[in-house]
Amino acid sequence: MAVLSMKKINICAMKKDRKAVLEELQSLGAVEIQTDGVEDDVFKKMNTATQRGKYEKRVANADRALEILQQYAPESTSMLDSLKGRREVKNINYVQLVEDRRRYNGIVKNIIDKDKEISNLNSAISKSELSIESLRPWVDMDIPINTSGTKHTDVILGSMAPGLTEDMIREMISSRQPDIQGYDVKVISTDKDQTCIFVIALKNISGKVEEALRSEGFTRMSFFSKRTPKDKIEKYRREISEYKQNIQSLSDEISSYADNREDIKLLSDYYRIRADKYQVLGELLQSKSTFVITGYILEQDSAKVEKILNERFSLMVEITDVPQEETAPVKLHNKKVFASAEGVLNSFGLPGKGEMDPTAPMSLFYIFLFGLMLSDAAYGLIIFLACAIILKKFPKMDEALAKSIRLFMYCGISTLVWGVLFGGYFGDLITVVSRVFFHHEVTIKPLWFAPLDDPMRLLVFSLLFGLIHLFGGLALKGYMCLKKKDFVGFFADVIPWFLLIGGLVLMLMPTELFASIAQTSFNFPGWLKTTSYAMAIVGAAVIVVMSGRSHKNPALRLALGLYDIYNLTGWLSDLLSYSRLLALGLATGVIAQVVNQMGSMVGDSVFGVIVFILVFIIGHTFNLAINMLGAYVHTCRLQYVEFFGKFYEGGGIAFNPFREKTKYVDIVDQK
């Protein structure tokens, strides 16, 4: 368990080399560049927004082209593809694509342009289909739509309210214009939305006829064409057919670019790397002929980076200790078993300045408590085998995901061990199957005890494990005090609580209350009882006297000390939280037994076997999933609240070196 030592790096180089130096640092991926430099009369920051925006647009275009390809030529994927990790591309292939990037930019442009054409054609199809629907009520009219009349007559085409007849329309006109004569009305069609009408009238009265109709809600037909409605509909249908043929042709052209999918992914990552470079470039302080880079680097990488930079460029590199007033970023380094729990720690917070890395002890407690909560040997074996197979089959998966799966693999081993100790194998599956289907009951006895038969015993051990967990957190606080040479804090804030809590526990153990809960009685000798009283009294006295030691006022110091004693309730609350170990452990076994009993209710028959198998698969899958989730959540809570609450604050910032951040591929050196 360690927080890797961090150094400060300062680079001063010629301005003409700034892009090359940045590209080298980006390739090395070892330096976190600070971008909070302050400009002055000599050193200024360069505005790279335009260039960065150009590359970001290229990234967006490449990603858009990939989305379009996925739409027209889907890439076959499976649920496990996310575990494969990113494709590795050799540096020589990457360089070759960079040299040929203009051709691939053209491919990206073609894909996007053809997709836009398809979108336009689809819009045209929708518009034509809408026009067809609008013309459908007029399909029985056998004159051109733009017919306006004859030398002496006018034609009026339009729609009115639904359900009207010719006589009703004539009455409407007569009621509005009773004195006019010389017009005729014909209903072309009527439906639930409108009545389409054809009106012919003498020119000298057509205006009055239309005015009367408008008073009754008449609307002129919006189409204008020299064709009849039927011919116009046929024209639209021919256009739709042509549009669809063009769409199919364009779709085939887009699909033909599917072989370039991986190259487009690499192109996207190339521009993504370039955009990152120009973003950092815009934050560097530059004079007329030089530029400076300030940042952080791991001590173990500093010599290598300094050597490479000095060999390839004319510059000055200075490696120094991180100033006391600065907070350096954090990089953890743990052995594989402990590193698997780094994700749990990251979710809470990395170590703050001066804090230790608690990953190793936390991971051991995490694995131990997770297994105790799930505590079924069969479930543990399933988890272990599933995680081990995934890790073996997908060695290149994302590092963070691999750590999480490896953690669950270790938790599976812990669950297997606890299951053997408690005698749980899919609950009481062996007993139920042997009794119902083989008529001879077989039982595998637990190596320790069965929690369902003796829950109070499990409760006592849960609280014992909880006390060990809490004392472990307090011990780490003591370790941190000694590491900082804070001996007063060690003897005033750590040792007294060990004495007080330990003394109170020893005082409780011989009591009848404890005997009734633990079903075990303790009869301590007199000297041990006296020692327990002395431990509690000394611990309480030191806490009262020393808790407020930073204040000079004796009364205030005493008041703060007495208030700190009240923290005993916090210890009690934390300790009782470990009863969840009992609750989760019993829940797994009880649900498993219920599933087994439900499956065996049909009895010993072929149908009964089928029912049992179905209930077994569904029930135990649910039980494993829900209790695995419960064990994960509650184990995290015990770490975050009870364990970390005794010594750990967190708040550190992760080390984020300037590197080639890619989305689709990993660029590796040629070997």
Residue runs with pLDDT of under 50 for 5 or more positions: none
> Main sheet, how many strands, which sense, barrel?
6 strands, antiparallel
Distance between the termini: 33 Å
Number of helices: 23
Q: Which range does the strand content fall in?
A: 5-15%
Helix-residue proportion: 55-70%
User: Would you tell me the structural class of the helices and strands?
Assistant: alpha+beta
Query: What is the alpha-carbon Rg in Å?
Result: 40 Å
Mean pLDDT: 93
Shape: extended
DSSP summary, beta strand count: 14
What distinguishing features does this structure have?
alpha+beta, 14 strands, single chain, 671 residues
If you had to describe this structure to a student in words, what would you say it looks like?
- It is a single chain.
- Strand 10 and strand 11 (290-298) form a beta hairpin.
- The strands form 4 sheets. Strands 2, 3, 4, 10, 11 and 12 form a 6-stranded antiparallel beta sheet that branches. This protein has a 4-stranded antiparallel beta sheet with strand order 7-8-6-9. A two-stranded antiparallel sheet has the order 1-13.
- The model has no long low-confidence stretch (mean pLDDT 93).
- The chain has 23 helices and 14 strands.
- The chain has 671 residues and is α+β, with helices and mostly antiparallel strands.
Break the fold down into its secondary structure elements and pairings.
Elements: E1 2-3, E2 6-14, H1 18-28, E3 31-33, E4 44-45, H2 49-72, E5 87-90, H3 91-99, H4 101-135, E6 153-160, H5 166-176, E7 183-190, E8 195-202, H6 203-215, E9 219-220, H7 229-255, H8 261-281, E10 285-286, E11 290-298, H9 299-312, E12 315-321, E13 332-333, H10 336-339, H11 342-348, H12 359-374, H13 377-393, H14 399-422, H15 429-437, H16 455-483, H17 487-508, H18 512-518, H19 526-546, H20 554-565, H21 568-576, H22 579-599, H23 606-643, E14 665-668
Helix pairs in contact: 1-8, 2-4, 2-8, 4-7, 5-6, 12-14, 12-22, 12-23, 13-14, 16-17, 16-22, 17-19, 19-20, 22-23
